[in-house]
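Weekly structure sync - notes
Attendees: PM, LS, DV (DV joined late)
Agenda: review two folding runs queued last week.

Item 1: First target. Sequence and structure tokens pasted below for the record.
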Amino acid sequence: MNNEDIYVSLDIGTSAVKVIIGEMSGKSLQVIGVGTAPSRGMKRGAIVDIDETVHSIREAIQKAERMVGLSITRVILGVNGNHIEMKPCSGVVAVSSSDREIRDEDIDRVMDAAQVLSIPPEREIVDTIPTQFIVDGLEGITDPRGMMGVRLEVEATLITGAKTTLHNLLRCVERAGLEIEALCLQPLAAGDFALSKDEKTLGVAMVDIGGGSTTISVFKDGMMQALRVLSIGGDHITNDISVGLRTTSEEAERIKRHHGYAFIDDASEDVTFSMNTMGNDHSEDYSQYEIAQIIEPRLEEIFELVHEEIYRMGYSDLPGGYIFTGGSVMIPGTLDLAEDVLRQNVRMTVPDYIGVREPIYTTAIGLIEFAHEHVKIQDKEMAVTSSSEEQSFQAAPLPPADAKPKKDRKELREQREKENQSNQSDQPTVKSKVKNFFKVFFE
């Protein structure tokens, strides 16, 4: 096992908390540990009970640890929710080296310059996503390192979140005994994993139907253009079944998972199942057709809301169609209903890795692959430790002690951080709680 390529992702959802331990070898991912636990402290994508959320995180972490005999100490944390906002930003700096070659420190400085924006005190900067770099007026550059120039510019997207929501999320993870190695926008990571380059270029909508919310992310021209979160999801389907069949929420969830069907036109009256109802000592039989009568109207409403929201965002023509993920799309007949309602090409994305071949793991897998492929990792310490030997594992190699260029860059970065803190002491960011990990990525 190559200790330097181990990543741990944490996806805290409304219905479940997912933890995945992955080992990267080149561009190949091997899932070596998976932990899933019911999410008891979340409602409609927001934390409503910190203690319950902490308990769910610990339970999922422990399950993943037992699979591989590792003790997890640091995680890549996914961030999502209707509190996330995106806005364009830009920065410009002069190339600092005497030979005018653009180096990593120039990238760092121009990305820092792009973040010098006035944001409300109730919001935090999560990250800055570069759209393109411009060197002496030459546009369309994705990676300017090694190029010669005098003036370096960047056009980027600034991602911010509600301070209270983000700090509650951080508090839960820290109280679970974990350190946050990186914050990553979940739709961005999921889209980077699930969508092809052509789909992201031509235009596509990725729809993640979770338990308490539905996330819509639109990709076009190679990048994520818009993000919306609807406060409706699979839990609403469960509630409809509970009310319609007069049964408990637990029984309704079981029925949805094992006997649910989403498309009335293809549902069968001959396929039946038994279930317990409240107030009765005996079970009752229902058909697949009857359960479809409950599930289809709610899913149809979700698809119509998604369609309306995408039009409202100004994307009426998306050649790539709709890509669905999330636990609720596992209900048989969902894609048939989606195609009937949306009148466009639809497909479901499922991770093709042993142990996680379900759409509920798309985001957690995406976090690992996104971190490995796009995030510049510097001075990263151990992510997991061996339970038997207490041996430290590194997710990226540390620089040698005599690597002076690395040391100089680190000193420059620390100096800039101190200057930023003194200039913006009234605007602390979430990044002050995590390493400067999720800073720059390139296609």
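Item 2: Second target, run right after the first with the same settings.
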Amino acid sequence: MIMYDVILFDLDGTLTDSKDGIIESIQHALSELGIRESNVDKLVSFIGVPLIESFRKHYSLDATQARRGIELYRKHYADVGIQTNAAYPGIPELLEELNAQGKRLIIATVKATVFAENVLKYLKLLDYFVSVVGGDLDTDGTSKTEIVRRALSQSKVTPKQKAVMVGDRKHDVIAAHSSGIDSIAVTYGYGSLEEIRNANPTYCARSVEELKELLMKSPS
């Protein structure tokens, strides 16, 4: 078992249960665009994916409509979405232990950086991380692969340092593969088990407790 020096965490569905606020904000944006959507399962698929990709894929919006949808979503989420976040049970304790062991913890999320930082501040988790790398408000959306590469570069992670990406969607695993690092896929988040298995992660964790065992296990 590899001991990791640097741990990149996805946010939504990995550290936090953020579904209610995200879905409400997506429904608000769609409603403003004249689209009524009550299928919650369909909207869950938006989580962890660049918004413009989801709006265009699921509702056949053109680029202008999709960008308007993003604007509406972000305004509503800024107003009401932050307070709907909750850390999964055991996550604060895990971050505290990893931090005490000297691990470098980084957030790598497609959520806009300012929103990610505000969520972490609200949950009193921000101080555990050396950096928060997310999407930009002035772009249509940044891929998870670009986010992970940027996080590794900005944090000056060297090849000698063992790094791992922890997330709940295939995009997290694909980004790790593309960046030459290991991945741990958590199955308690928003990605389906089939999606995660097909992405071929290095490890899987069915619970926060299993994630803790993978990240804190002694080398063998």
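Discussion on item 2: The chain has a mean pLDDT of 93.
Action: LS to circulate a short write-up before next sync.
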